[in-house]
Amino acid sequence: MTAAVCVQNLHKVYGNVHVVKDLSLLIQPGESFGLLGPNGAGKSTTIRMLTTLTQPSDGNLVVAGHDVQRQPTQVREQIGVVLQQTSVDGDLTVWENMELHGRMHHIPAGPRQKRIQEWLDFVELSDRRDSKVKTLSGGMKRRLQIARALLHNPKILFLDEPTVGLDPQARRRLWEIIRNLNRQGMTMLLTSHYMEEVEFLCDRVGILDQGQLIELGTVEELRQKHGEGIVMKQQGDRWDYQFFPTLVAANEYFDQQPDKTGMMTRPSNLEDIFVELTGRNLD
Ligand code: ADP
Predict the structure, then answer these.
(1) Which of 4, 3, 7 is nearest to 208 (CA)?
(2) How far apart are the first and last CA of the chain?
(3) Selection from 175, 223, 228 nearest residue 202 by Cα
(4) Ligand 1 neighbours (beta carbon < 6 A)
(5) Region 25-53 average pLDDT
(6) Quick one: which atom of ligand 1 is closest to the CA of 45?
């Protein structure tokens, strides 16, 4: 099976700042992949290189079977892109924004109207089709961006921080939409600095820190590698963590402690692993 996304030894240097360092990864068709990392880790730069918007300094990129540097037009036909900066036109209506995108992709009028209707239904925006985009909430604008990115039937959807700045309800709604798309077979690469977003949406996770991929796998694989059980101990106003291979092992250690004041055990999660690897919290 040809990989949906193939990244080999990718580098990006701005001036003398090396922002993406020797990144290699494969994403299979149908997979939902999350690139996780703190602000400034290089996530957006990576997405911009994969979607033909930024030139790599070095490395090979193949997306949907096409070389990104040599065949950017073919790549663009096969991908949908939802970037952080809302690029929908506020003075046009929801429907007009979709029309504009459909025409730019030369989708003939008949199928265009049908697809616009279908995707607006899918993102639950049909009842706002004649509203000016500037009157929509942040969550609705993001849903419109997704509908628009899907209009030309892409094979792979790239989402850069899809829910940043949204309230919890809007975020949940967007998660359901994104998950449904993936269940229908859409390959996805999304970036996020929200742990729970990546845990909810992604089959596999890559942790990017200071331009380097420092971990790669499913959340379960990462938990098995770093330890599935945690013993926490309160030290003043901070918590010390200790990983154990299993929760049972963590509980056994806990039971042996003569003084259990300020101590607790629990299963590990992605955030514990991130903090363990980078020594930093995400937010
Ligand atoms: P993230 O998406 O993980 O927050 P970015 O990819 O946006 O990280 O940024 C990675 C680093 O690259 C940051 O230090 C940022 O300041 C720098 N950077 C991003 N774009 C440019 C640019 N066009 N010119 C110079 N530096 C840039």
Answers:
(1) 7
(2) 38
(3) 175
(4) 14, 19, 37, 39-45
(5) 95
(6) 6
Ligand 1, residue 54: give the atom nearest the CA.
Answer: 23
**How many Cα neighbours within 13 Å face the side chain of 272?**
24
- Residue of minimum CA distance from atom 5 in ligand 1: 42
From ligand 1's centre to the CA of 80, what distance in Å? 22
SS3 27: strand
Q: Ligand 1, closest atom to CA 44?
A: 2
CA 89 – CA 69 distance, rounded (Å): 29
Name the residue type at position 173. R
User: pTM for this structure?
Assistant: 0.92
Say how many residues make up the chain: 283
Residue with CA closest to ligand 1 atom 7 = 44
Q: pLDDT digit string (tens) for 138-178?
A: 899 999 999 999 999 999 999 999 998 899 999 999 999 99
Domains in the chain, CATH or no CATH each? 5-221 (3.40.50.300), 228-267 (no CATH)
